[in-house]
Design brief:
mainly alpha
């Protein structure tokens, strides 16, 4: 029988100079839009499935579940072993060359998607996926109206930020916000124009 770990609130945990330095440098060297969820965030050092350790060695049971697509546990051996095997075999070729794996995945998706959805467009981020969806919707409908949820986060590119709620994903200050809004509108228009030109060729 094991003795249960004693619960200690995060606010009572001692923070080392190493932790303080990481938080200070984060504020100094990363853009203000790359924010942390807490005023005194823990500085993560390593993870193992549902557990996370900070740089002080404190162990946490991680109820956060992962952000975005990382919801399978920290360093899940089923995932990390496959990633490691692929990186050691072939790391990156872009889309200039076909590979058996990308073709197999596209074929599998075509088998389970309804109707005429038989071709895939793979991206490496939600930002790119959202951009592709918006641009395709605009081209198909001719409409530039986009419905976005309040407090939504759609990505970090100009077009994705145009449909991101100000409270969640944008860092705005006075004139900066007005200039950002104008640039986002121009950028979105240019992206659609560029995509249309490319498809006409």
């Amino acid at each position: 029988m094991t003795t249960p770990a004693q619960f200690v609130p995060v606010s009572q945990l001692a923070r080392s100079a190493r932790s303080e330095e990481a938080v200070a440098k984060h504020k100094k060297y990363l853009w203000p839009s790359v924010t942390n969820y807490f005023q005194q965030p823990l500085v993560a050092d390593r993870g193992e499935m549902q557990h996370l350790w900070d740089v002080e060695g404190n162990k946490y049971l991680d109820f956060f579940g992962g952000i975005l697509t990382v919801s399978v546990g920290h360093c899940n051996p089923k995932i990390s072993s496959k990633v490691s095997a692929q990186i050691n075999r072939l790391q990156h070729t872009s889309t200039l060359f076909p590979t058996e794996h990308i073709v197999a995945l596209a074929e599998k998706i075509a088998q389970i998607t309804p109707g005429n959805l038989q071709q895939s467009f793979f991206t490496n981020s939600g930002t790119e996926a959202n951009e592709a969806a918006i641009l395709l919707a605009r081209m198909s409908t001719g409409s530039f109206d986009v419905v976005a949820l309040r407090h939504a986060y759609s990505g970090g590119s100009a077009l994705a930020k145009a449909v991101t709620a100000p409270q969640g994903g944008r860092h705005q200050r006075g004139d900066f916000a007005r200039r950002e809004s104008l640039l986002l509108s121009l950028s979105a228009a240019l992206e659609v124009s560029r995509l249309r030109s490319g498809l006409r060729r």
